[in-house]
Write a structure and sequence with these properties.
Blueprint (H helix, E strand, L loop, with lengths): L8 E3 L2 E3 L26 E2 L4 E10 L2 E3 L6 E3 L3 E6 L5 E4 L4 H4 L6 E4 L4 E2 L5 E3 L6 E2 L32 H15 L4 E11 L9 H9 L13 H9 L3 E5 L2 E6 L2 E6 L2 E5 L9 H16 L2 H4 L2 E6 L9 E4 L4 E5 L6 H11 L5 E4 L5 E2 L19 H7 L5 H7 L12 E4 L6 E5 L13 E4 L8 E6 L16 E6 L8 E7 L4 E4 L7 E9 L3 E8 L5
Parallel strand pairs: 8-11, 13-14, 13-17, 13-18, 18-20, 21-28, 23-25
Antiparallel strand pairs: 1-2, 3-10, 4-7, 4-9, 4-19, 5-6, 7-8, 9-12, 10-11, 15-16, 19-20, 21-22, 24-31, 25-26, 26-27, 27-28, 29-30, 30-31
Length: about 525
């Protein structure tokens, strides 16, 4: 059986090529232990090559706002991106891979099969290697006795880059290091396959994602740009890419006000969504060139009919999010998935039955997503939500890079008693109070606590949990690798107490709450302060 020419492989934006004339022909069981029969379209690596490790995160049970029906799917998958931008899922990622940050470079072993139908990677028992930093080993141990993390995508020299590849890497570096600040361009892709299409017009998609209404359309009141601009108080803005035109043979394809229709020669019905996604990426790259040089973020709106009842997913620290048909229209899903692109993990909470639900913290956008548009002011108020204390701290929107100064505070065990008045993030632009407090865990085990007043007003009026309460949220370090945990929801007179590695008992006490305006808190180690 003759397979197509082996694929070209990529480590981030730097290209690494297989021999251009290598052809592979084999029977089902004669290729390096391949257990399943090879099919036309499958690719086999004849030698090891670098690739980019990506983590995809989604709502495993996104909730339909109208009928509460559940859309299920995997919460997290581990993936490899290759040179044409195609992404393949790793079924058996080992513990070392699962500790990597999304965006790091790995080495794909020779004999690896890229399955065209399933969209998965098969290494046939060989190990995907983590590229070590120059002069070091990936499992070096630091002075604290903890294993050092491998260096990130841009912290090491990748040999063999030409000038164009280096320019691409430099551009991606600039993009990622400031991903939650500044102005970012976005393209929403309306996908058509041979048997289906995203079921809404370009004009409708433009309205639902960007709030751009035609002369006869109703005004869109809450969308991706308005949500992030309000929550960040202007520190992060998303704008539709104004225009771009490319060609594919005789076909001319245009992006207009952030929206483009892309036709791909694959079926959607009963197909793996990854195959449709990869076909879209290949077509965009062919028409427009390198995606990250065209726009900062891309949203794929796939047709209905692909396998499963999934809602949406996105790749962490990356430019791509993918939506199942009408889920592309919902601001809750848009902000959640783009949040993953920014490096935000999910927001979880312990349930009363002792189970941990990675999305049950519904005080902010990184818990469960909800469907439904925002046709009325009441619906807007119900859906206008920002982020919990951990994501708010991680964003940098209220600290030294914020548009209205640093209104955060960091507290350590040696700082004694703290008495503070907290305002909600909706009042960040007008208040003189702090809006976020980080309590540093001296053990160095990464379990810091973050305290905020979850004021249910203005840009956060739709919070579904802990409204007008003081929240205590825990997360590991770095924040982009840790699911946050909502530990405390405190009303006036409430206390949260822990002695978990803080050296002595730590208490967060709420003295009083003034409606949705402010909360007076005391934080102390050991005995109560006055």
């Amino acid at each position: 059986m003759q397979l197509r020419k082996a694929a070209t492989f990529l480590a981030s934006t730097a290209s690494f090529f297989l021999a251009s004339n290598s052809e592979v022909a084999a029977t089902s069981t004669s290729i390096r232990g391949v257990g399943e029969e090879l099919e036309i379209g499958d690719d086999i690596l004849t030698e090891e090559k670098p690739g980019t490790f990506l983590i995809s995160r989604s709502n495993p049970a996104a909730i339909d706002y109208e009928d509460r029906s559940v859309h299920s799917g995997p919460e997290e998958t581990f993936n490899i991106m290759v040179s044409d931008g195609s992404i393949y899922e790793i079924d058996d990622a080992d513990d070392d891979l699962q500790l990597l940050q999304s965006g790091q470079t790995v080495t794909i072993p020779a004999g690896t099969v890229l399955r065209s139908k399933s969209g998965k990677v098969e290494t046939n028992g060989a190990k995907i290697k983590i590229k070590a930093s120059k002069g070091g080993k990936k499992d070096d141990v630091g002075d604290d006795g903890l294993k050092k993390k491998t260096k990130g995508l841009f912290e090491r020299n990748l040999e063999g880059r030409n000038e164009e590849q280096q320019r691409n890497v430099d551009q991606l570096r600039r993009h990622l290091t400031s991903r939650s600040l500044g102005e970012k361009s976005v393209v929403a892709v309306r996908v058509q396959t041979t048997d289906a299409e995203y079921e809404f017009s370009e004009a409708f998609l433009r309205r639902e994602v960007f709030g751009i209404s035609g002369s006869t359309d109703e005004e869109d009141l809450f969308n991706l740009p308005s949500g992030y601009e309000q929550c960040s108080h202007g520190a992060l803005t998303f704008t539709p890419l104004a225009s771009a035109t490319g060609t594919d043979g005789d076909d001319e394809v245009s992006i207009v006000d952030g929206v483009v229709t892309i036709n791909v020669d694959v079926e959607a019905n009963n197909n793996v969504g990854a195959n449709v996604r990869n076909a879209v990426t290949q077509r965009i790259t062919k028409v427009f060139g390198d995606m990250v040089t065209v726009a900062d973020y891309w949203m794929y709106c796939l047709p209905p009919g692909t396998n499963g009842t999934w809602a949406a997913y996105a790749y962490s620290n990356f430019h791509l999010s993918v939506y199942n048909n009408d889920w592309c229209n919902y601001p809750s899903a848009q902000m959640h998935e783009i949040g993953h692109n920014l490096g935000f993990r999910h927001s979880g909470e312990w349930l009363v039955d002792g189970r941990f639900d990675k999305l049950n913290d519904q005080s902010g956008m990184m818990g469960y997503s909800y469907s439904g548009q925002d046709e009325t002011p009441l619906m807007v108020r119900e859906k206008t939500v920002c982020f919990n204390a951990v994501k708010s701290w991680q964003s940098g929107w209220y600290g030294v890079n914020g548009t209205h100064g640093d209104k955060t505070l960091e507290l350590s065990s040696g700082d004694g008693c703290l008495v503070e008045t907290l305002s909600g993030i909706a009042d960040y632009d007008t208040t003189l109070n702090k809006v976020l407090i980080k309590i540093v865990n001296p053990s160095g085990n990464g379990t810091d606590l973050f305290v905020a007043f979850n004021a249910q007003k203005g840009i956060n009026s739709g919070t579904r949990e802990a409204g007008n309460q003081v929240t205590v949220v825990q997360a590991g370090t770095p924040l982009e690798t840790s699911v946050s945990t909502l530990l405390g929801k405190l009303s006036a007179g409430g206390k949260y107490t822990t002695d978990s590695n803080f050296g002595e008992e730590l208490t967060v006490e709420v003295v009083s709450i003034s409606s949705s305006d402010s909360a007076n808190v005391k934080i102390y180690f050991g005995s109560e302060c006055t």
